[in-house]
Design a protein that fits this description.
Elements: E1 2-4, E2 7-9, H1 32-49, H2 71-77, H3 83-89, H4 101-111, H5 115-135, H6 143-155, H7 171-174, H8 184-202, H9 207-218, H10 226-234, H11 241-246
Antiparallel strand pairs: 1-2
Helix pairs in contact: 1-2, 2-8, 5-6, 9-10
Length: 251
C-alpha cells in the first residue's frame, strides 16, 4: 500500500499452494498440516493486505522487525488447534460429519510429543548462532566447533557423535538470511502464543479482541516498534507462559 498521484494503491497478495491433488473421483482432501500451512501463509497475506500505512517502506510486512514478522503467520496457526474452529471449517467429505473429539485429542497429543526436546534444540541452535557471530575469531580454526560443544554441554540432552558436522549444513544462518537472527523463530512463537492466549481468555471468536489485533498489529505494519504494538494489543509485555502451555510443557 502506498500513495500515488492518482490516490492510494491497495495491496494484493496471492497464495500459490502445492496441496494434495484430487485422486480419481475423490476431491482434494487437505491434511491437517496443509491446513496449518494455509493459515500460516494467510497470516502473512493479512498482514500485507490489511495495512493502513500509506508509506511503502513500512506498510504491511515491510519494515517489521525480523523477530516479529512471523507474529501474524504463527498466530494464525493457533486456530488450527481449536476444536471449535476445526468443526467450523472441516467435515467428512461424504457425510459432513465433524472431526470426532477423540481424534482431535490424539492429534493434539501427537503435536506436543517431545515438544520439550524440540524447544531445547531450537534454543541450542539460537545460542550457537548468537555466539559465533558475537565471538568469531578468524585466527582460531577450531572456534566454531569449540563454541558448538560448549553450547551443547550447556543445553543439549542427547550427546552427538564426534564426527558430527552440523554447522557445515546450517543453511539458515549461512545462506538463508537468519545470521544472528535464528532466535527469531522461537521468539515469534512466544509472541504468537501470548497474543492468541488473549483470545483463549476472551473467546476464540470474540469480535472485540479480533478488532484489537487488526488495529494494533495488522494495520500498523512496520510503522511502530513491534514490541510497542504487541504491548498495545496484549496490555503488557510478552511472557513465555502461553508458549509453554500450548507446547504441553506447562499446565
Amino acid at each position: 500500500r502506498f500513495k500515488k498521484a492518482a490516490g492510494v494503491q491497495s495491496p494484493v497478495a496471492y497464495l500459490t499452494c502445492n496441496f494434495t491433488p484430487p485422486i480419481g473421483d475423490d476431491p482434494s482432501l487437505l491434511t491437517h498440516g496443509e491446513v496449518e500451512t494455509l493459515f500460516h501463509e494467510f497470516g502473512h497475506g493479512l498482514h500485507h493486505m490489511l495495512t493502513k500505512v500509506d508509506y511503502l517502506s513500512v506498510s504491511g510486512i515491510h519494515g517489521v522487525e525480523w523477530d516479529a514478522v512471523e507474529l501474524p503467520s504463527q498466530f494464525m496457526e493457533n486456530w488450527c488447534w481449536q476444536s471449535d474452529v476445526m468443526a467450523l471449517i472441516s467435515g467428512h467429505y461424504k457425510t459432513g460429519e465433524t472431526l470426532p473429539d477423540t481424534m482431535f485429542e490424539k492429534m493434539l497429543a501427537a503435536k506436543n510429543f517431545q515438544s520439550g526436546m524440540q524447544m531445547v534444540r531450537q534454543i541450542e541452535f539460537s545460542i550457537f548462532d548468537f555466539r559465533i557471530h558475537l565471538e568469531f575469531d578468524k585466527a582460531n580454526d577450531t572456534q566454531i566447533y569449540d563454541i558448538l560443544q560448549q553450547v551443547r554441554r550447556e543445553v543439549g540432552v542427547v550427546k552427538t557423535p564426534a564426527f558430527n558436522r552440523f554447522p557445515n549444513s546450517f543453511s539458515h544462518i549461512f545462506a538463508g538470511g537468519y545470521a544472528a537472527g535464528y532466535y527469531s523463530y522461537k521468539w515469534a512463537e512466544v509472541l504468537s502464543s501470548d497474543a492468541f492466549s488473549l483470545f483463549e481468555e476472551k473467546g476464540v471468536f470474540d469480535e472485540k479482541t479480533g478488532r484489537s489485533f487488526l488495529h494494533n498489529i495488522l494495520e500498523k505494519g512496520g510503522s511502530d516498534d513491534a514490541l510497542a504494538l504487541f504491548t498495545a494489543f496484549r496490555g503488557r509485555k510478552p511472557t513465555i507462559d502461553a508458549l509453554l502451555k500450548h507446547s504441553g510443557i506447562a499446565a
